[in-house]
Amino acid sequence: MAFRLRAAWRVLLPALAGLLVGASASANTLTQNVSWTIDRAGTSTKYRVVAYGDSIYAGYNGSVLNAAKYAATTVDAEYLAAKWGADIENVRRAKSGAVASDIYNNKIVAERSYMQAASTRVVTFEMCGNDGLQARSAFKSQSGTCSYAGLETALANCKTYVAAAMDYINANAYAGTKLKIITNLYYPGYAADNVQSSCRDGTTGATVNVQGAMLPRIAKMNYWMCEYARQKGFQCADSFAQYMGADHDSNGDGQADADALRYVAGESEASYVTRITTTLRSTIRDANQKFVSASSSYDYIQSDDTHPTYTGGTVRAGLFGGTTGSGAARYTSFAGGKSPIWNQLGHERMGWALSVSNPAAP
Questions:
Q1: Given Cys at both, which of 158, 190, 311, 362 links 128, Cβ 3.0 to 4.6 Å?
Q2: CA-to-CA distance for 246 and 287, rounded, in angstroms?
Q3: pTM
Q4: Domain total for the chain?
């Protein structure tokens, strides 16, 4: 028996290593489904938040076996539990490494039953991050004449599947759903991308700044996430603004940088992209140093320079299945609608940004 166990582990360990590398590099996918209920004292009424997405909503932390318990949507469940005085079940149907088409087809469509439950009150999703990461990796690996086709394909696919996902959720979510919300993309590796490409532009013959190539595409992805949301009855939590801009006014324009960077409902794509890539470009900062005041900052990104930081422990989520569990809220009330750590970690900040749109009653 001992021989057979050792032999089995010799087969399994290389597979675990391959999945770990693949998931962190966004090359392979790893299903990380979790259901966690915020169990509020004195009530048995329970409502559901359904979250579809990739490694962000999964709470990916570099492990193929577990994930953050308090990923952004579970943080939001705490806010809802306090606001509604009810138990809130957060069902996270997530696939680390998945591109937008995969999330749409194999999570939102294939697993629509989760949002069709009569207890569902909030449906949220995020996607496109891996489309962008994979396109960036391919662009950085080019030599010779630069091709921008991969970056443009990532943008086009993002727009296609974001719109399709909203239409599908509108048609299939439980009729009593009170809130449908998307969160857009922050820019992981923003500082690291401030380097020149190995390839050369076909017109100028010069190498290309990778950040300069990526930022306009990410801006267009984010614009259409929020603009489609406006058109299709969703809300949009602007994670780009929340992560990439300071919470103080660094350029003297009268607004905190994070507020100035936000999508403005009804503005044109050209206006938004110009504001992000030119007008306010100097205020964008890498989320590894998120300034919450002029003199205080926190790290919103884990050491992989990709995934949000978190606190509150982990739950099983990965190769050996996911967790279905419950526990008391860390915070049972929120002064001013914010937890004491709302701005100190990436997942806490995203969870708060989602909570801003929460309806007053279920």
A1: 158
A2: 9
A3: 0.93
A4: 1
